[in-house]
Amino acid sequence: MTHFLLISMTQKLVIIGLELGALNKLKQLRLDDSSIDKSFLHMVGVLTSLNVLTMSHCGFSGSLPAQGWCELKKLQEIDISHNHFDGILPSCLANLTSLQVLDLSYNHFNGNIALSQLSSWTSLEYLSLSNNDFLNPISLSWFFNHSNLKVLLSENNKIAFEPNSHGGTPTFQLEFLVMSNCSFDGLKRTPRFLQYQYDLQVVDLSFNNLVGKIPTWLVENNTRLVCLVLMNNSFTGPFRVSNDIRPNIRYTDIAVNYIEGPIPANFSLIFPNLEYLNMSNNALQGSIPSSFGNLVSLWILDLSKNQLSGTIPMHFAVGCDSLAFLKLSYNNLSGQIFPTNSNMTALSYLYLDNNKFSGKIPKSISIVSYGSIDFSNNYLSGMIPTWMGNMSGLNLLSMAKNQLEGPIPFELCKLDLQLLHLSYNNLFGSIPSCSNLSRTEFLYLNKNSLSGLIPSSLILNTSDLIGLDLRDNHLTGNIPHSIGSLPSLRILLLRANHLQGRIPIQLCLLQTLNMLDLSYNKFSGPIPHCLSNITLKASFQEDDLRGLSSGLGSTNSFLPSLPYFETKYTTPPDEEFPRIHWGASLNVKPEAEFTTKRITYSYKGDILQYMFGIDLSCNRLVGEIPPELGSMSNIRALNLSHNSLSGPIPVTFSNLKQIESLDLSYNNLNGKIPLQLTEMTSLAVFSVAHNNLSGTTPDRKNQFGTFDESSYDGNIFLCGPPLQNNCTKMRPPSTMPVDNEGEEGDIFMDMGVFYISFVGAYITVLLGIVAVLFINPYWRRAWFNLIEVCIDTCYCFVVVHYHKLFNYRSA
Length: 811
Ligand SMILES: *[C@@H]1O[C@H](CO)[C@@H](O)[C@H](O)[C@H]1NC(C)=O
Ligand SMILES: *[C@@H]1O[C@H](CO)[C@@H](O)[C@H](O)[C@H]1NC(C)=O
Ligand SMILES: *[C@@H]1O[C@H](CO)[C@@H](O)[C@H](O)[C@H]1NC(C)=O
Ligand SMILES: *[C@@H]1O[C@H](CO)[C@@H](O)[C@H](O)[C@H]1NC(C)=O
Ligand SMILES: *[C@@H]1O[C@H](CO)[C@@H](O)[C@H](O)[C@H]1NC(C)=O
Ligand SMILES: *[C@@H]1O[C@H](CO)[C@@H](O)[C@H](O)[C@H]1NC(C)=O
Ligand SMILES: *[C@@H]1O[C@H](CO)[C@@H](O)[C@H](O)[C@H]1NC(C)=O
Ligand SMILES: *[C@@H]1O[C@H](CO)[C@@H](O)[C@H](O)[C@H]1NC(C)=O
Ligand SMILES: *[C@@H]1O[C@H](CO)[C@@H](O)[C@H](O)[C@H]1NC(C)=O
Ligand SMILES: *[C@@H]1O[C@H](CO)[C@@H](O)[C@H](O)[C@H]1NC(C)=O
Ligand SMILES: *[C@@H]1O[C@H](CO)[C@@H](O)[C@H](O)[C@H]1NC(C)=O
Ligand SMILES: *[C@@H]1O[C@H](CO)[C@@H](O)[C@H](O)[C@H]1NC(C)=O
Prior knowledge:
CATH class of the domain at 477-540 and 590-730: Alpha Beta
Bound molecules: 2-acetamido-2-deoxy-beta-D-glucopyranose
Number of strands: 53
Structural class: alpha/beta
Helix content: 10-25%
Oligomer: single chain
Radius of gyration: 38 Å
CATH superfamily of the domain at 477-540 and 590-730: Ribonuclease Inhibitor
């Protein structure tokens, strides 16, 4: 006799009614992860003894059948989560009066949960409605008679819980309540029924836009509370809890609210066993209480984006010896980082960026033996210590925007870094020719005073390099030809150095490059024709993207991960319930700057993929602009200004459909502006000023209607709107020369033609008037009267005109 049938894992099941009938004594049927035909649902009713039916991840879709399975009157547990069911719940479900566990999560159920059904499920202990499309408001008071209800999960629903209009008090005592990201329609206050709860262990009300004082009474009322998540609401007020000790609380996330005031000094007394504390994105003031050092279990602490001031207390640095993750970024903290030797031997992630820390980099941080360090945007001074080379497991090191000086120690080469960010310091000396940066993806050393050559060994050995930023230094020499051996390079920024020589054709091998900035150097010679090769393949695959955005985070296995809660509630309940797991992980996004539209934007993360730009401005480049550049159809910004480029503007540029900024100013370009350029419909900035261009300006259509004179300035032979030079005055279309030679002669010939036609027109008009006056005697009399009346005015008019004409000739 079969009482239990367990079918798990992915299996193809073919179940026919006959076989099912033989199983009529079956108590439990667990079919999770199987692929079952939906007709099974119509037949399952024959299993009249069934207590437990679980069918999660079975790929069902459509609505639940209204017959066939509602007859399972003995069912205590149903799990149909993670399917694609939609529609409303059939009303016959009200027959299932023994129901204790109902899991409908991760489907597309909508409509109302029929009230009749709810009221008949009086034995319900566990109800999960999470991640559905339940639409209509349910009053929570409908649950109030379910005295056995322990777990209520309803995150990511469109459920609009009604205000507590029915009043009354709930008969249940919940242990586990997750109502995150429910649009509490009309109810922006913490649900009132919570005030009657004293047995809660897990409360998650995040992403609800709740207002009012932060409900610290939840902590006070519920002595067994383990986990409190009130993240991303609009709670205000100080986080002050009465003096009772709450030894069970291990996880508190109240980030992204408007909590103000200081952190209570005896915080650690009240929450002695805290493991995870996230109070980031609030308005906390005052200093970090020294008593934090008593939080010996604390593993992850995030106080970033507040207004905390003062120093890191000494007691904190020695006491929290379990701390693995410390983020104090974006505060007003000052003083030395870890003035004493710290006992935080587990510390792997230390984010102290955007504060006012000063002094030298303390030896005490050498305890961070792997993970990440971000000290950027502080006032750290002194040299980069050589012992940092012994922090061998370090993955990300950012000390940008400080006042560090001296050379980059060769010892740093020993680190197996993915990111080294030392920009905006006063570092000098040469770039160490590291030979083992094989894992380095981002090397940002811009805005220092580094000199010497770009070491070719460095480049040869960084095959994973994605971003190299050496802008604003004093580097000399050529771009090493080994640059072509960086197959993943997407960002190459060498702006404002003293680099020279030709632009190496090896750059053309970098087929994945997004941003190339060689401006403000002394590069000479022509622009390589093959340069167009670099973005030919620039259409990114989804996978490439993921690689980039997780560029710094592909270390996921090292990063501490965020907890999630295991809520699986089976009969009988799990001993350890509720359990905290550490699952999802953190991620850091890469960053790069690029100048386009004459403004420097900071591109972060995924947006990098959309940015394709080449800046070769302010060099000594000669020769013609390679027409091949017109095939870089993905390019968004191209700046070739301030060089000595000659020849015409390639007609092929009209293919640059994505281009937003094109600057060719301050060169020796000649010939006419191709009229097809108006096909560049994304253009926002365009300049060909200060060249030797001639002929007419492009039609004022599409984007070209928005460009003013400054786009064309300094080309004396250019005419047409928006310039003042009138093409018809300068050179009538009929006699427009087609060649570019004899520019000097052109203007004289044009003026000659102009005079001839002017005189011709004058005589014609004069003869016309005389003829009219001769024919009509009335007009003749009127005409001579008029002459007498305004003889003076006409005189002035002629004088003015003469002057204008004179001025024009001398111009
Ligand atoms: C059970 O559901 C059917 C509808 O499928 C309904 O006709 C019947 O009245 C229900 N029985 C009870 C006891 O609710
Ligand atoms: C709950 O029970 C009380 C009395 O037992 C009753 O008056 C009330 O209507 C019930 N509420 C619901 C929603 O069923
Ligand atoms: C909140 O729910 C909406 C849909 O209702 C969803 O798009 C969004 O991603 C959810 N937010 C979070 C943080 O889960
Ligand atoms: C919970 O706290 C609220 C507000 O302080 C209070 O009104 C209520 O009586 C408390 N409930 C319990 C069960 O202690
Ligand atoms: C907070 O939630 C809102 C929507 O509920 C969302 O737009 C916003 O990005 C969230 N803020 C953070 C910091 O997660
Ligand atoms: C915490 O400090 C407050 C005053 O700041 C005091 O009322 C309370 O008793 C203290 N709690 C403990 C546990 O010491
Ligand atoms: C703290 O909360 C913020 C806002 O939700 C989040 O971005 C951050 O990752 C959290 N910190 C940790 C360490 O989990
Ligand atoms: C940071 O501290 C300084 C004094 O040290 C103060 O002038 C400034 O207003 C503080 N800034 C913030 C955002 O609290
Ligand atoms: C580190 O902790 C131990 C006890 O765990 C203590 O004896 C020692 O003094 C601490 N170290 C420092 C530098 O305070
Ligand atoms: C760094 O490590 C080397 C060998 O592993 C050792 O000789 C040296 O003393 C260490 N330096 C410091 C400053 O700890
Ligand atoms: C550029 O691409 C063309 C065509 O794909 C190819 O023939 C040429 O060799 C490439 N040039 C370089 C330098 O890779
Ligand atoms: C240019 O000349 C034409 C014909 O002479 C005239 O219609 C037009 O208004 C002039 N444009 C400007 C900008 O002077």
